[in-house]
Amino acid sequence: MTVDAICLMGPTATGKTELAIALCKRFPMDIVSVDSALVYRGMDIGTAKPDPATLVRFPHRLVDIRDPEVPYSAGDFVRDARKEILAIAAAERTPLLVGGTMMYFRALTEGIACLPAADVRLRKEIDAEAAELGWPVMHRKLAQVDAVSAARIEPNDRQRIQRALEVFRSSGRPLSAWQVDAGTGTGTGTDIEAEAGAARIVYHKLALGVTPRSLLHRRIERRLDTMFRQGFLAEVSGLMARPGLTAEHPSMRSVGYRQVWSHLAGECSLETARQRALAATRQLAKRQLTWLRSDDSVTRFDRLESSTIDAISERLAGILGSIDRSPKHGL
User: Fold this and answer.
1) 89 with 193, same domain?
2) Distance between CA 258 and CA 256 in Å, rounded?
3) Phi–psi pair at 49, nearest 5 degrees
4) Which domain holds residue 307?
5) What is the CATH number of the domain that holds 95?
6) What angle do CA 148, 153, 158 make, to 5 degrees?
7) Which of 40, 72, 74, 200 has the most crowded CB, counting CB atoms within 10 A?
């Protein structure tokens, strides 16, 4: 059994959800979310989660499946996503994987390394070292032992620098070497064995972009300001009141949440938090674009072109073999 799965990827604020819904109106497709923040309950405004009415009409699998106190890993995602893909295929529909968490897409389509387990002691040592030297210096230390990972990680990306150093110091092997071991092939869609050989999933990768980059930055800023108007501060305040949830939980290290938490904790002004959140979101978009450029199997589309929906539909028609051209289904 071969299952065709469509991957709709792209940087934050490119309108992936809106386009995915339009495609679901044209094709018999079901959406699987590929977003490391949308998995968490209670994180709605700062993640731009689809509203309840939309989720009822167009269900998104792997949304609201964890409390924010409970970590969710790439390994968890691969297991859950494959289960949902096969369930959708069993219903004779096509899985549409939509999101911007490139690490999840990579783990799903290229395989996932069996990395060393987290080491709390090592993490504390690395954090203490970074507090004294700064994360850019820690990034240079990483480059000395794992140049490949360092080239992919921004000098101020604390979480990823910490993990890469932790893996190297605990195992003696660079993170990039572990990830190479997980590779399973390349092509128009990487073929991954699922469910112990019960199905072969072929991933067809489509990517949305917005050009020029300045337009994407403006879309990011408008969306962030909308989040604040909708009550982002109150949402984070409510999360801070949850017993056991701290700023160090992976959910609260998500872009936007980390900066707003810092403001509400009295560590910076609201405007400073906004500017930091804006800068962090732009850096996230930059990393997403870099990842997409590195993947030759991706078919790219400009989100702002009026013909994008039709161009993607033609591409999908070639894969899936059917299309409903009714005008009511347009964007």
Assistant:
1) yes
2) 6
3) -65, 140
4) 2-113+186-210+297-329
5) 3.40.50.300
6) 130
7) 40
| Same domain, yes or no: 222 and 281 | yes
Element (H, E) at 243: none
Q: What is the CATH number of the domain that holds 250?
A: 1.10.287.890
Nearest in space to 303 (alpha carbons), one of 219, 206, 223, 209 = 209
Q: Give just the sign of the alpha carbon dihedral 94, 99, 104, 109.
A: positive
Q: What is the pLDDT of residues 88-101, one digit of tens each?
A: 999 999 999 999 99
Check: CB of residue 110 under 8 Å from CB of residue 182.
yes
> Do 157 and 77 reside in the same domain of the chain?
no
Look at residues 35, 115, 106 and name the one whose alpha carbon lies nearest to residue 290. 106
255/167 Cα distance (integer angstroms):
23
pLDDT in tens, 120-163: 889 889 999 999 999 999 999 999 999 999 998 889 888 889 99
